[in-house]
Design a protein that fits this description.
The protein is α/β, with parallel strands linked by helices. The chain is built from 13 helices and twelve strands. The protein has helices at residues 25-37, 63-76, 92-97, 112-116, 159-170, 183-191, 202-210, 239-257, 265-268, 274-280, 286-290, 296-303, 307-314, and strands at residues 40-44, 53-54, 60-61, 82-86, 103-104, 127-129, 131-136, 150-154, 175-179, 197-201, 218-220, 228-230. The strands form four sheets. The chain has a five-stranded mixed beta sheet. The longest helix is centred in the last third of the chain and has 19 residues, at 239-257. The protein is globular and about 60 Å long. The two termini are 28 Å apart.
């Protein structure tokens, strides 16, 4: 779908001449590079259902994929202008640091070490999660404490590996790690009985269980042993790109709060609500401040949808409840600053 669709949409070109050019060569490099090559290069997972995985036709789908598509809609006018590179947990940060990808949107937990030591910036959180466990029902395990002495499948370079180690040490429990780099291989190893349990962020466990030869033979334990806010990552030397990624995520969240969806946004163009006018770019000049045109947020919602639409399309079919990922106005913690 063209980014210029929609009668009366302000700022028909995603590279409007009136857009402010960021100061400093480094700050302009990612946005300029994306425009030159004509696509956003996005690092995703090797296949996590609901977040980033290919469908039967080979198309990438998921909550994290929608972040990539939103960025492309904002800066290139077309949400389809994304190139995806699947990365393991061990590969992801090197790919970003080396410049192989423009943005990492790969169910990545924001932590102090990743921010400060690795130098990755996480402009916004788009999912809140935590480490949980799936176990074989035949074991009769009902709680994490009953896994004392168990073998646990883990993926290296993840917070899950650290969370399990810390939790078991704190509670004076023993376990034997079975460390496997690729998610699909770790999942297969768990199903084959190489591990008593598999530790992953709890939202991922629903998709793991769905792929089991006999889903009813596997049980997801109720406990969550950590905090795991997810967010897209960028390099810290490019403030303008960081802002674009941040506000692309925020636009999807804000759209849901404003009651906007891909189906209704065109009707909102005639609204005299000042919040809608700023969001749609008819007032405020926020696109120019961001280095894009005035229709950037309109295109995100028209072509990708609101946050709620993305959740319903990608995660609800897995049987996941939004939980704390509901909007703050609905009792959750999902919150985006206003455009003003």
């Amino acid at each position: 779908m063209s980014g210029c669709s929609g009668v009366g949409v302000p700022g028909a070109s995603a590279t409007a001449a009136g857009a402010r050019t960021p100061t400093g060569g480094a700050a302009a490099s990612t946005l300029d590079g994306v425009r030159r090559k004509g696509y956003v290069h996005c690092g995703v997972s090797t296949g996590v259902a609901g977040f980033s995985a290919t469908d039967a036709r080979g198309n990438w789908r998921g909550l994290d994929v929608d972040v990539c598509r939103a960025i492309a809609a904002a800066v290139l006018g077309d949400a389809s202008k994304v190139r995806y590179t699947p990365l393991t947990a061990a590969q992801r940060f090197t790919a970003l640091q080396s410049g192989e990808i423009d943005v990492l949107s790969r169910n990545t937990t924001i932590t102090f070490q990743r921010d400060v030591q690795l130098g990755i910036e996480f402009p916004a959180a788009n999912w809140y999660d935590g480490t949980g466990f799936i176990v074989h029902k035949a074991l009769g395990v009902k709680a994490v404490e009953e896994l004392d002495g168990a073998t646990i499948c883990l993926i290296p370079g993840t917070t899950n590996q650290l969370d399990v180690t810390d939790y078991f040490r704190k509670h004076h429990l023993a376990f034997t790690p079975v460390v496997i780099e690729r998610l699909d291989e770790a999942t297969s190893a768990f199903f084959a009985g190489r591990c008593d349990a598999f530790a992953q962020d709890r939202s991922n466990l629903a998709s793991v269980r769905a792929r089991a030869p006999i889903p009813d033979a596997e049980v997801i334990l109720p406990q969550v042993i950590s905090k795991a806010p997810y967010g897209p990552g960028v390099m810290p030397n490019d403030v303008r790109w960081m802002e674009i990624v941040r506000w692309s995520v925020f636009a999807m969240i804000d759209a849901e709060e404003l009651g906007l969806s891909s189906r209704t946004i065109d009707r909102a163009l005639a609204s005299d609500d000042p919040n809608l006018q700023r969001f749609l770019g008819t007032t405020g000049g926020f696109g120019a401040m961001l280095g894009v045109d005035s229709g950037w947020a309109y295109r995100i919602v028209k072509q990708v949808g609101s946050y709620g639409e993305s959740f319903d399309r990608n995660l609800r079919p897995l049987g996941l409840d939004r939980g704390v990922n509901r909007l703050w106005s609905d009792g959750g913690i999902l919150y985006a600053p206003d455009l003003r």
